[in-house]
Amino acid sequence: MAEHRRGDLRDITHEMLSKGRELAEKNGASLTALLLGHDIKGFASKLTDQANEVWVVDDLRLKNFNAEAYQRILSSLITEYKPLLTLIGHTAFGVDLAPRLAIELGIPLTTDCLDIDFEGGVLSVIRQMYGGKVNAEALLKEAESYIVTIRPAAFEAKEGEPLGGEIVDVASSLKEDVKNKKFIEYVEPSVGDVDVTAAEIIIAIGRGIKDKDNITLVQELADALGGVLACSRPIVDKEWLPKDRQVGTSGKTVKPKLYIAMGISGAFQHVAGMKSSDLVFVVNKDAKAPFFSVADYGVINDMFKIVPALKNKIYEIKTIT
Amino acid sequence: MNIIVCVKHVPETAEADIKIDSEEKSIELSGLVFDINEWDNYALEEAVLLKEKHGGTVTAITVGSEDSESTLRKCLARGSDKAIRLTDKRFEESDSYAIAKILHSVIKNLPFDLILTGVQADDVGYAMVGPILAGLLGIPHATMVKKIELSDGASKVNRELEGGLEEVVELKLPALFSIQTGINEPRYVSIMGIRKAMQKEIKVLSLGDLELNKNDVGVAGSWIKIEKIYVPPAEKQTEYIEGSPEEVATKIIEIIKSRGLI
Amino acid sequence: MDFELTKEQKEIQKAAREFADKELTPELGREYDKKEEFPHELHKKAAKLGFIGCHFEESYGGQGLGILENFLILEEFCRADSTLGTALLVSTFGSDIIVMFGNDEQKQKYLPKVASGEWIASGAITEPAHGSDITSMDTTAKLDGDKYVINGGKTLISNATIADFAFVLCQTKPDAGRRGQSVLLVDNGTEGFDQTKIHGKMGIRASPSGEYSFSNVRVPKGNLVGVENMGFYHTLEFLDIGRAAVAMQAVGMAQGAFDLALKYAKERTQFGRPISDFQATQHKLADAATQIEAARLFAYKTAWYLDQGRIMPKMTCMAKNFATRMAVKVIDDCLQIFGGYGYIAEYNIERFYRDIRVTDLYEGTTEIQKNMIFRFLTK
User: Fold this and answer.
1) Which residue among A267, B87, C5, C241 is least packed, with the fewest CB closer than 10 Å?
2) CATH code at C47?
C-alpha cells in the first residue's frame, strides 16, 4: 500500500517495497505496489522498478487520504485477489486505515512491526513493547491472508535490480461518495523563530527535565555550544517548548553533526526524527533507556549533574582561547 | 452528549527498571506502579471537557482485574459519571482484537454519541482497539485526534500527521476518536472528586454477562500470540563514558573538539 | 482494631501523592528555600483541589473529612518536599482553634477563606520571654467598652508576615496565670498590629516566620474565641492537634529523605558495586524504614483518637516526642549515605536535614513533651 501526501511519495513506501520484495522472493510470491489517489501516474512510474506490478486506482474521491474511501477500495481488492500479505505503513495513514480494514475482512492484523517473516506458513513478527524497552516475537493466527503495519524507518529502502513492473489501471470500486468521513483541509505547523532542521548542533531534552524552570539550564548549555534546543514529545504536550522544537515522527526530522539527548528515553517516534545525526550522545539515568542502543556515546548519569559540568568545561575552554 | 471513554490500567515503565520474567513472555510486574494509560488520561480529560461544554454523561470502561478499579476510580473522581469493569479469567492474554470485541459486546447496548480511546497503550502499543471497536460498531472513526469540535450530529477533528502537519476531518456522529497526547491538560484528582466518586458504583461484568463465548476472547479469540520477549539488541556499538560528572564532561568535550565542532 | 486505610483514604493518599510529585518539585523547593518566600501560587492550586483544610466541615468550606485524611495529605506533601510541604501544612495553622472553640459567625468568616486558599492563618502564642512555657503571657488584653485593647508582642510566629489573621493568646486577667488567658482573633490591617519578618532561619524557609507587635490594638468583643479566661486550656487542646500534625510532618519528611537515600544507594557505585550492596548501608536503610513505620503508626493513631473526639495529650506528646527525634536521626543517617554530596543543595537531602530540625523545637520542644509525658505518667 503506497503512501503519498501532497504530491510526494512517502519514504515508508520504498521501505515497505524493499522488505516486500525480500519476502516475495523468499516465498515465491509476486509483489504489487498499490497506489490510490488522483492524478498519480507520476508516482506509478517511480515504483515500477521496485515491484512486479503497480496497480493504480485513480478516483477524484481518493485525492486526499480518507480511511473510509481507501478501506472500501482495499477491501474489494483484497477480497477479490486474496494477497498473502498486505503491508501498510504504521503512520497516521496506516493507523487510521489498517485495523478497521482487518476487522471488515476478518484478516489477522498486527501493527508497528520491526521485522516480519513466514515460519511454515505462519506469519511471525518482531515488534516493540514498553516504549521500546522490550522486543517481542509474536505469531499471528494462521490464515490465508495477513495485514501488517510497518514501523517507519524499520527497513532500509534498498535499491535492487529494477523489476520493471507493469502499470495496471484498476477501476475504482467506489460507488457513491463517502459520507461518514470527509477531508476538509491541512493545517500547517506553526513556524517559530528557530529552525531545528537547519541546526548543526542540537541539545534535546525529554521527560527527564522534570520542570519547566529547568529548561533554562539546558538552553544555556546549547547557547554555550552554539547549538539549538530541541525536545521530545512530552515537552511539547506540556507546552514547555513550542511544537517546532519537537524532533520525531510527528515533529521535525533533523540531521545535525552533533545530537546530545538529555533525559530522553528514546521512543522510536523520537529516534526516527534524529537517526541520521552524525554524532549522538545520550545522557540518561536509566541504563535501560532504549535510546542508548542508537547512541555513539552513552552516559548513564543524571542530566542535572552532566549539564552543569559540560557548561563549566565549555566556559573554561572559551576563556582560555 | 453521552460519551464513553475506554481506558486501560498499565504499569508505568518509562522510568522504571524493567525485568523480563523467567518464562520470557512478559515483564515482571511486581514492584511497578500502575496507573491510567497516558493516552487514555488525555481521552478521559477530553471526555469530561466535552461533557462540561455540551452536557450529558461520561462512562469509563476498562477490561481488567480488580487492580484496575483504581484507574476507574480515578476516572470517576475526575468527572466520569459511571464506570464499568469487564473482567474474567478467560479474558487473559486477549490481544487488541479480542479486547475490542469484549468492549463492543457491552458498548453496543449502551446509549452513546461519542466514544473516546487513547491512540495506543503505554505497554503493548498496538494502536488497534479504537478503530477496530469503531468497525465492530459500524460508526465513523478518526485516530490521532488533537482537537475536537462538535456540532449537531457532526464533528470536526484535527488529526495529527507526520512532521507537525495536521488534517481537519469532518465526521458524522456517533463516532469514535482515538486521542493523541497533548490535546488538553489533564486535571488532578481533587478531594471533592474523590468524595463524589465514592458515591458512584463500578459495575462489574464478566463473560457470562456478555453476548460472547470463550472462543471470542483470550488466546482463542486473538490474532496475535506473544512467543518471546527480550531486551532489544543495540543498533550501534555504544561506547559508555564513565566517571565523575567532571570527567564525563571533559571526555565529551574532547570528542566534540576532535570532530571540529567546537 | 483495623489497620487498613479505607478505600477513600487510599484514594486521597494517591491523589495527594500525584499532586505532590508533580507540583512540589525539589527545584521549586530549592527556589523558595533560597528566596525565603511562601509559595502562594502552589498554595492556591492545592486549595482549589481541596487539599487545604479538608477536615473543616462542608458548611465551612471544607470537605467534611477527618484529621486522619488531612494527615495523609500532609504526609505526602512533606514526603515530596520538606520545604514546600511544610509551607502548605502551616498555611492553616491556628484555624483549628476556631474549628474547636469558635462560634458559627467566626467559623463562617474565617474557615471558608482558609480552605479556599484565599487566606492564610496564624497562631500567636510564643512570646520573647516565654517559649514553650505558656502559663503566663506578657501580651495583655483589656476590655474597654465593647472592645478588647491588646498590647504586647509575640515572636517566632509562623506565617507572621503573610497571614490574613491571627489568633492571639492574651492575658485577660492579670496575675491569674493560666486561669486568666483568652484567645482573641486579630485581622491583618487592624491599627496598631504590626509584623516583622525573621530572616536567616535554618530551615522551613518557605514558611516565613516573624514577630507580632500589638500597640493598643482594638478588636471587637466578638473576636473572643471560646470562653474568656479559658484561653490557656483552649490553646492546650488546640496544640494537641498541632503536636500530632508535627509528628505526621516528621514522618513525611523522614520518608522523603529515606526515598532519596534508597534511590541514591542503588545508583551510586563505589569499589565497583552499588553502595546498597554494602551491609553498612543496608542496615542504615533497614533501621530507617523500621523507625519511620513505627512513627507513622503512632501518628495515625493520634489522628484516629482526634477523629474520635478524644483529647489524648499524653499520646500526642509521645507521638511528637518519638516521631521528631526519630526523623532527625533518620534524616541524618540518610544524609550520611550520600557522603559528601549530601552536603550540597542540589541533592536535596540537605534541605530535609535543615527542615526537619524545627520539628524538635516547635509546638513545644522535645524537652517540654517529655516533661508533660512524665506528668501524665505520674498523675
Assistant:
1) C5
2) 1.10.540.10
Instruction: Give contacts of B 154-183 with C, CB under 8 A.
Output: none
Residues of A in contact with C28 (CB under 8 A): 211, 213
> Cβ of A285 and C267 within 8 Å?
yes
3-class secondary structure, C195: strand
Task: Please check whether residues A234 and A308 belong to one and the same domain.
Answer: yes
Is there a single domain that holds both residue A68 and residue A134? yes
Q: What distance in Å separates the CA atoms of residue B126 and residue C299, rounded to the nearest whole number?
A: 47
- Same structural domain, A68 and A204: no
CB A260 within 8 A of CB A283: yes
Whether A263 has a pLDDT exceeding 70, the answer reads yes
Domain containing residue A239? 196-320
Q: Which of A110, A237, A293 sits opposite B234 (nearest CB)?
A: A293
Q: Is the pLDDT of residue C346 over 90?
A: no
Q: Is the dihedral of CA A261, A264, A265, A266 positive or negative?
A: negative
Assess C276–B contact: CB distance below 8 Å, yes or no: no
One-letter identity of residue A10: R
What is the CATH number for B14? 3.40.50.620
- With respect to residue C2, please indicate whether it lies within any of the assigned structural domains: no
Contact list in A for residue B128 (CB cut-off 8 A) is: 99, 109, 111
End-to-end CA distance of chain C: 28
Alpha carbons B206 and C298: distance in angstroms, whole number: 42
Contact status, residue A103 vs residue B136, Cβ threshold 8 Å: yes
CB nearest to B188's CB, from C19, C54, C64: C19
Residue among B96, B227, B231 whose CB faces A137 most closely: B227
Residues A87 and A227 in one domain: no
Residue B91 CB partners (closer than 8 Å, separation 6+): B63, B98, B99, B102, B207, B217, B218
- What's the domain count of chain A? 2
**N- to C-terminal Cα separation, chain A:** 57
Domain range for C111 is 7-115
Residue A139 parent element (H or E): strand A134-140
Do A8 and A155 have their domain in common? yes
Neighboring chain A residues of C25 at a CB cutoff of 8 Å: 210-211
**What pLDDT, in 10s, does the model give residues A101-128?**
999 999 999 999 999 999 888 999 999 9
Q: Identify all chain B residues contacting C11, using CB atoms and an 8 Å cutoff.
A: 70, 73, 77, 189, 194, 197-198
Q: A211 vs chain B: nearest CA distance in angstroms?
A: 15
Q: Quote the domain boundaries for residue B44.
A: 2-216
DSSP assignment of C239-301 equals: HHHHHHHHHHHHHHHHHHHHHHHHHHHHH-EETTEEGGGSHHHHHHHHHHHHHHHHHHHHHHH
Which residue, B164, B87, C86, B252, is CA-closest to A225? B252
Residue B234 at interface with chain A, using a CB cutoff of 8 Å: yes
B143 in contact with A, Cβ within 8 Å: yes
C79 and C54 both lie in a single domain: yes
This model of the complex carries an ipTM of 0.94
- Looking at the domain assignment, is residue B257 inside a domain? no
Give how far B233 is from chain A: nearest CA, Å. 7
Based on the domain organization, do C222 and C236 belong to the same domain? no
A207 touches chain C (CB under 8 A): no
How does pLDDT run across A303-318, given as a tens digit for each residue? 999 999 999 999 888 7
Say how many domains are in chain B.
Answer: 1
C363 among known catalytic residues? yes
**Residues A7-45: pLDDT tens digits?**
999 999 999 999 999 999 999 999 999 999 999 999 999
- Is residue B74 left, alpha or beta, with left meaning phi > 0 and alpha meaning psi from -120 to 50? alpha
Q: Tell me how far apart the alpha carbons of residues B169 and B148 are, in angstroms, rounded to a whole number.
A: 10
